[in-house]
Amino acid sequence: MEHVVAAAVIDAHGIVTGWSEGARLLTGHAAEEAVGRAAADLLVEELPPLPARAWIRPVLVRHRDGRHITVTVTACPVLGADEEPAGWALTAERPSESEPTLAGRAFQQASMAMSVFDPHQRYLRLNEVACKVMGVSEDVLLGRHFPDTVQEAEHSRGFDWHLRHVVETGRPIRYESWAGAPSLNREHAWTTEMWPVREPSGEVVGVALAAFDSTEQYLARQRLAVLNEAAASIGTTLDIVRTTEEVVGLLVPRFADFVSVDLLDWVLGADEPPPVPDGEVVLRRVAHGSAHEGTPEAAVRLGETDVHPPFSPPARALRERRAVRIQAGEPDFVSWLAERNARAPEGRRFRSGVHSVIAVPLLARGTTLGVLVGVRIAHPDDYEADDAVFAEELASRAAVCIDNARRFARERTTALALQHSLLPRGLPGQAAVEVAHRYLPSGSTAGIGGDWFDVIPLSGSRVALVVGDVVGHGIASTATMGRLCTAVRTLADVDLPPDELLTHLDDLVTHLAGYQASGDDEVAELGATCLYAVYDPVSRRLALAAAGHPAPALLLPDGRAELIRMTTGPPLGVGGLPFEAVELELPEGAVVALYTDGLIEDRDRDVDRATGELCSALTAPAATLDALCDTVLKAVLPEEPGDDVALLLARTRALGADRVATWDVEPDPARVAATRQAATEQLTAWGLEEAAFVTELVVSELVTNAIRYGAPPIRLRLIRDRSLICEVSDGSSTSPHLRRAHAFDEGGRGLLLVAQLTQRWGSRQTDRGKTIWAEQSLEPE
To answer: How many angstroms separate the CA atoms of 279 and 281, rounded?
Structure first.
């Protein structure tokens, strides 16, 4: 009886004129109640204008007891004598619970949600999956307008718009959406196909659709998108903390409502990695982030250490070297949450909704660096196996970036320590110049460069000023810088002129490059620039030569500043080309500014403009030379220099005639006593009687050797500086050397005696021969 066919006849005015027994059984209305009434009184909703042809559709009928019944109505027009519709013959039946055809059963049992709508967005058919998604049976929805069956929401309006669009255009459409459903407790991703259903005439009489739940595919694409984004957003700097912050920013809130990154202490230092302990693990919080402002879920503050018990997810992840997931209700979860609440009870209410936790080890190149922890609170889904795979992949990429930052920091620290050990810490005491210096390593990811400078005391109160720059960055460049710095000091001891010293230095760099090129190890490119200058406070002359290095700037006492005009030779390592020295006389109080190219050169700067800024900055008032250094750097240096910068300022001093005494000595042994007496008298005039005894011996020995083994002209010079310097020059280029005299030798002990009595001694070549010198300390012992 539930599926009995009901029949009714309606005239052209919509009045019921016939009513079958089946209609009474279906609706509860007897014939005397139905006949003569408007058919619309028996319907729940008014039907749209009916076409002048046969049609079939679901209709919502009002039962006599008030219930709403969905029936499938088939209508055929009844024609009059003029062949115009005079009424309608209707048959109605309840939808069958089992499809009578194979095609019908295929539709009903399809694995995706399928529905059919009329052109006015009313339900005509739904299969089992569609009913499950909607959360109601088919008979509840048949004949109803779609917007009336769902809540007002953006995705509902979009679905309705697409239904209308298919009817209006007659073209199929496919789209993806992220939306919920009445029977689902969270949003899903849907891939929906809609297409028009046509009559043989081509008229659109309905819209059919199939909706596929593509949540897994959608989430997989989302995970892949996050991994792709990680490649660009993680590791933008070689800073460990910044890198971990980038990881947190990428995962919150898409993957977790709270994320923390804890590292083992050795990662932040210079120690070698120890084995991961099997029991408790001590980790330092480096970064964390939350969907809540202020990260109230955090039980550990940034920079603090935390002891993780063996059962905790971080300790297990480090020990097992894999992602560890725990969910609400599990014993380890309960213990972990209780431990967090005990440590930081003020965040308890923010942790009350925690339902899933994942801990992932940070592994890079076989080394364990720390652990990443993700916590879900508002996010409805627990962490699943796919999430663990994704988290391990992301953590692996992040760990490599963290390890790169760690290695860079370690190499930078090593290179900086090596460089600082090679640079002069306290410049040696001397009277020739007053000096101030600055060295600024760049923050470039390329690492520490090979910039260096030095101030080397020379004989005769002279001083050498050196500044150089090795090509490249890192430890290799710093090591090369150390070699060149040592070589310059060695060559400076020989008292070579600036151009000759650079020639020898160029040969050294060429040999080093050839030696390293023959090895199997990869090495930094060898090449360097250098400027070497020698200042003599007695003559007030500055001699300098450059190998590929920018010319120094000069600030004169009258306030004028300019670059020193000089011919710059090729960089060191080119080989085969000469270096040219320039010499100029400086007034006392002039400031010579030597620097490396990082001060004035940058890809976005004009070098001429930068050197102009340098000269202008040198003229700024400054109380001290140190203050002038800071003024120059502030005025000339870019905000983010891309290279190391070394700056050396030297203010010249002069030794007046009252501190220098000179005698021409005739090449006669008989003149040795008179010369010795003249030196003694000069010491008395200077008030240095205590140094007279040693000075007499030194003068006697050096002058005698010059007369005996040298060549005219012979000259004696005494210089009173911070030490007493005795110099004897002659026209021979043959340098003396120490030798051990035998017991019965009459000579050979003079230079040995000089070496024993003085602080240091040596010889240097000059344009006219050589000069033998010896220094005595004037400081009280």
So the answer is: 6
Is 651 in contact with 590 (CB distance < 8 Å)?
Answer: yes
| φ, ψ at 693 (rounded to 5°) | -60, -50
- Name residue, tokens 């202490």: 265
Residue range 473-485, pLDDT digits in tens: 666 777 777 788 8
Window from 428-432, 451-455, 692-696 with minimum mean pLDDT: 428-432
User: What tokens were used for 310?
Assistant: 């063996």
Cα separation, 694 vs 758, whole angstroms:
8
Which residue type occupies 370? G
Pick from 192, 160, 164, 165: which is nearest to 178 by CA? 192
- What is the pTM for the complete model shown? 0.58
10 Å Cβ neighbour count for 608? 9
Amino acid at position 177, single letter: S
Query: Does the CA dihedral 100-104-106-110 come out positive or negative?
Result: negative
Number of H-type helices and E-type strands within the chain: 19, 32
Q: Are the CB atoms for 295 and 288 separated by under 8 Å?
A: yes
SS3 216: helix
Token digits of residue 13: 């005015």
Asked if pLDDT for residue 432 goes beyond 50, the answer is: yes
| Of 340, 349, 364, 355, the residue nearest 288 (C-alpha) | 340
Residues paired with 379 in a beta bridge: none
| Phi-psi region at 460: left, alpha or beta (left = phi > 0; alpha = psi -120 to 50) | left
Sign of CA dihedral 747, 749, 751, 753: negative
- Strand-pairing partners, residue 776, are 724
Q: How far apart are CA 12 and CA 75, in angstroms?
A: 13
486 contacts 476 by C-beta, under 8 angstroms = no
Using left for φ > 0, alpha for ψ between -120 and 50, and beta otherwise, residue 697 falls in alpha
| DSSP 8-class letter at 597 | G
Q: Is 267 exposed, middle or buried (0-12, 13-18, 19+ CB in 10 A)?
A: buried
> Letter for the amino acid at 276?
V
Average pLDDT over residues 339-350: 91
Confidence band, pLDDT 50/70/90 cuts, at residue 359? very high
Count of residues in the chain = 781
Give the integer Cα–Cα distance in Å for 51 and 735: 126
Say how far apart CA 5 and CA 247 lie, in whole Å: 67
For residue range 52-100, list pLDDT tens digits in order: 777 777 788 888 888 888 788 888 888 887 777 788 899 988 766 566 6
Q: Is the confidence at residue 543, as pLDDT, over 80?
A: yes
Amino acid at 568: T
- pLDDT on residue 429: 58
Based on the number of CB atoms within 10 Å of its own CB, is 584 exposed (0-12), middle (13-18) or buried (19 or more)?
A: middle
Q: Are 34 and 17 in contact (CB under 8 A)?
A: no
Question: Dihedral angle at the C-alpha atoms of 691, 692, 695, 700, nearest 10 degrees?
Answer: -170
Tokens for 6, please give them.
């009901």
What single-letter DSSP state applies at residue 572?
Answer: B
